Amino acid sequence: MATSNISRPVSALSQTPADGAGRPREPRVWTEEALEVLRREARRSADTHLLHLQLPAFPGIDFYFKDEAAHPSGSLKHRLARSLFLYALCNGRLRPGQPVVDASSGSTAISEAWFARLLGIPFTAVMPACTAPRKVEAVEALGGRCDLVEDPGEVQARAQWHASRGACHLDQFGLAERATDWRGNNNIAESIIGQLEHEQHPEPAWIVCGAGTGGTSATIGRYLRYRGLHTQLCVAEPQGAGFALGWRSGNRNARALQPTVIEGIGRPCVEPGFLFEVVDDVVEVPDVQSIAAAWLLEELLGRRYGGSSGTNFVACLQLAGRLRTWGKRGAIVTLLCDRGERYEETLFDRTWLEGRGLDPAPELARLRASTTA
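-> structure tokens emitted (373 positions)
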């Protein structure tokens, strides 16, 4: 992962533990300086592009792709990581010199490592051992440490173990939906609606996103209601995953029917941040379709994006099919969640796919035809 545009840790945070008289620095002073570092980073970060696409098979329907992979840390999770650090600082949970830890399948960990490096704070990512190697390498390249756990279901418990030994647990799964300011502050929903202001359909028919922590779907769903918009929210899920089963049944104890190879979404259980009430529909997508759609996105947009972006795209095509059947026009917006280069050894590697009995070629042909017919 390229890191040439990553700011070095600020000396006042990482190298000056005492004031001019040699007295220990007050934690409140350190917190104020850390918050200012994050504010400066946010001001330097230009908003991500909203890419526009029209497909021959869907006349009158505009597709928009919010390119969150363009963030400095390479994914949608850049926004979440900043919010989690702000939340920890403003709640007094993160003290000077304290290490931080979080459980992550990769993209959140990379973004958290990026911000930890910016603040000069030690960071440990607890990750499933099956995480794409490129993600592990990216965390380590940013100075983070990876604690790989064989059982993906144990990553949270392992993160809590680190917290019991003094680390600040950023806790993306427990805090994502409350750490983000859903009413504004340039959150992803406000950004999307603002960028559509002068488009043909400024109020989209649908916004589509996945559910990892649940923070993004909660933010978008709340914001749409806050603004009084009629846009509907669809969550795109790997087939049989926790959010889909819980949403359909209203059961917060629902468990996934099978694991998924699509990293970042498709949680095995209903996470605390999953808000079912703000979601209008859920589309379940088999893994092989998600992979094929990620391959198709490369053909359509000219660069690679990860498997969750493919999951989102499949849901968009299904929703577009509904609009077409009903004779309606409109816009559908979705997210390009992270860089496809992170999956060169997995989702874009034919040998890796064959070893798991996954052949995206037939689905790729079908999806390609469905966009042109």
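The two ends are 38 Å apart (CA to CA).
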